Each structure stands twice: as C-alpha cells, then as structure tokens.
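Much of the work behind modern protein science is quiet bookkeeping, done one molecule at a time. The fold becomes a row of whole numbers, each drawn from a learned catalogue of backbone shapes. The protein below has been through that process, and both of its lines are reproduced in full.
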Amino acid sequence: MKILILGANGFIGNSLVEHILAKTNWQITGLDLHTSNLTPYLDNPRFTFKQASMLDEKQWVEDQIKNTDVVLPLVAIATPATYVSDPLRIFELDFEANLAIVRLCVKHKKRIIFPSTSEVYGMCPDKEFDEETSNLVTGPIHKERWIYSCSKQMMDRIIYAYGSRGQLDYTLFRPFNWMGPKLDNVSNAKKGGSRVITQFCGNILRGEDITLVNGGAQKRSFIDIDDGITALLKVIENKNNCASQKIFNIGNPANDVSIRELAELLLKLLKSNKTKLIEASGKEYFGEGYQDVQHRVPSIKRAMNELDWKPVITLEEGLKKILDYHLPYR
C-alpha cells in the first residue's frame, strides 16, 4: 500500500510514520515544512520526503495523489489561541487548502482519511458525543474560537456529501485530546502557544505559575498518541472495508479529568513546589473571541466494535511518557 501524508512532521504525522515503518510494509510519501520530528526516518527506503509547503507545491501534491492509494491531509492549525488571534489563517489553511486536497481525491478516485476534530461537537450537551446522533453546537459569531470547529465541520459535510454520492471513498476520524511527547514545542513560552499539556509542562520546567482558565473546571478526555495511532492504522488497513464511509471518535473516556486535576497531577509527578496554580478568565487569557467547552467525552463504541480496538494507556502512564521525554534524568 502507498500512503501520502501531508503534514508528516506534525504530532500525528510523525507518530504515524514511525508506526507504519515499524509495523507494516507500506510505502510512505510525506511532505512538511519541517523535519525536526522525522530525522530517524529520513534514510528509510520506504519513506520518501519532500520539505516544502503544500501551498507552494500544488503540482507535486497532485502528482503524488495520482500515484498513491490513501491520502492523509494532516496539515492544520489546532491551537485555541490562534483561533481567536488569527481566525482567517485558520479558515485559509484548515478549510480552503484542505478542500483542494479533497477535490483532488475525488478527481483521481483516491481514498482519503481526513482528521476531523472533537471540536466539531462544540457545546453539545450529550454526556458522551456520538458520531451519528450528537448535535454539533457552536457559539455566536463574535466568539471567533469557533472558526476552527466550523471549518472542520464544513470539511466533514463536504467529504460526506461526495461519499454519499459515490464520488469519494473516505474515513473521518475525530481525535479527542491526543497527547504525547512531541505534541508541541515545550520551549514555547508564549501564553496559549501550545496545547494544554505541553503548556503546563513548559510552565513547570520554567518555574512559572500555571494559569487555569476559568478555574480549570472544564473537563477533557485525554488519549495517548500510541493508542490513537493504533486505531488509525486499523482505519488505513481498512480490513473488509470496516472503515469506509464512516466517522470514528478516537479517544479514551476513561481518562476524563478536569484541567485543574490535570495540572495537579503533573505537579505531583514532577514533585514541584515552585509552580503555583493561578486563575484567569477566558477573556483575559485568550481574548474577546474565546468561549469554553465544559466537557468533551467521546463515545468510542463504533471504533471498538468496527475496528476491534480499544485504548489501554492510562492518563498517568501517558503523562509519565511525556515527562520522561522532556526530563529523561528526572
């Protein structure tokens, strides 16, 4: 099987490259602006890599799509601070640039595995979010945080529409707070510049206080990247077409904790008594356009039943892997 990964150096992309090369005989072609996470794989004969922007290499991208079996367009911006500070950039990359890739897959009749997001559920009141029945609930227009959710949701709807009319073989997967050592740059000290676990780890390592937005009462379900990639490999393999024309939540409802509890657990694991927990409103921390989500728990029944998969790594085990990566001698 030939796999094209756009955004191969990113968090999901580089982990997927690692697992494919270690566990399968598939061929990979990857593209990204950077190589920082791919250095161990660049000399592998089953991995062909081009360092460039997909926006600048449109003909190359189309040529690769023509000659591959499965396309994974993983290029996206997924940091809430950017949703508020630069919403048009989110729309242009996460929606417009990826729409072009979807249309090329339709044109050349190639299977696409597209990364949706848990954000599409927004402020859905359901106890667990179901791929088929949960409503997708977002806030008012002036809360610009929702441009990411809406961009991804529109991509989901377009892909589904092509698929339901027999024009596209697709799978949509919705990551619920995937975590791992290379999630973001732990050295990035910019407020809101990283997703929450990397942000908190960086705060602790720099001896800074951790800011809990709106008190940290909001809850998230975290899943280790290795559990997530195990599910994604089953989606790519698509044994007996088990993943075709379907949407899968990929998360771990057993690892559901409040952001405050997450911060307290990290402080406990690092035995830190220098970092304090302080509070700020969403407006103070992210800006006027921010609106929070109080809970985000996936139903993973479909993935468990149809992919024969289940997550096995606990929250504490996953956090220890992250800390061991950043502090190997702690």
